[in-house]
Amino acid sequence: MKKIISLALCVVTVVCLMLSSCSGGAKLTDKNGSACVDAKNGITYKYASVCYEPVALGDEYGELKVGEKLTYKLYTVPDMKESEWLATDDKNILYAEGVSLPTLSEMKPRMLRICTTESSGLEICRIGDGDTVSAIARAFEEGERVAYPLVAAEKKYKVKFDGEVLSGICYSLTYLEYAENIEVDGVSRGRYFLYDAFDRVFVPVGDEIHAALAGEGAGNGAVTTDVGGAV
Predict the structure, then answer these.
(1) DSSP H or E stretch at residue 142
(2) Which of 8, 132, 178, 193 could lock onto 220 through a cystine, CB 3.0 to 4.6 A?
(3) How many CB atoms are closer than 10 A to CB 46?
(4) 3-class SS at 11?
(5) Around Cβ 148, how many Cβ atoms within 10 Å?
């Protein structure tokens, strides 16, 4: 009986070791808040702006230790090489040194998902016309940056651009809609804006997202996926 129990324990131990070595075993260490190091595989990853998010989390890859108290789970990004791209459990992107991080326009956005702002990010609707989505992206990148107004927005959503480049990663901004035209520095800037909270970029845009939310954007490939209010 003792031999049987001992043999069973050995089998369980071997199986556990095999499972831990197959997945979820990498351990990365934060390096002064600017990068993190996978010493075992000899890879240094940098932190991307919070505008970059995984479309979904893949398999558990390991963990990231930040300081003495914080530990984050790490995941692969579907359709992306883990030697180049990883994601934390709170959906921050890590990218390896030597890998280029594309701008929004360089991602060639062709789909825009409009979501609520809580962590679950419930999708409300989407714009599927590639030309319209590209125009919205250009309006943000090339439009005039203005000061963030001291007025509460009437509606607030997360908008996520899905592109032809880096299909496993989206570019996320905040959409703000005001009840009336907003004046900044004495000039009327309209009601519709996109905001990058990381770099504090606030830019007026057209009414395409408003039309999609109002169910008036069918000509731009807008499709309502859920009915709900802004958060």
Answers:
(1) helix 130-142
(2) 132
(3) 16
(4) helix
(5) 14
The 10s digit of each residue's pLDDT in 132-188 is 999 999 999 999 999 998 889 999 999 999 999 999 999 999 999 999 998 888 889
pLDDT per position as a tens digit, 36-46: 999 888 999 99
**107, 163 in Cβ contact below 8 A?**
yes
Q: Give the 3-state secondary structure of residue 220.
A: helix
Radius of gyration in angstroms for the set of CA atoms belonging to the chain, rounded to a whole number: 22
Secondary structure (3-state) at 140 = helix
Phi and psi at residue 94, to the nearest 5°: -115, 135
Q: Which residue, chain included where needed, has tokens 């499972």?
A: 19
Query: What is the pTM for the complete model shown?
Result: 0.82
Question: For residue 223, what are its two tokens?
Answer: 């499709």
Residue for token pair 């609707």:
125
Q: b/e string for 49-78 if b means 16 or more Cβ within 10 A?
A: eebbbbbebbeebbbbeeeeeeebebbbbe
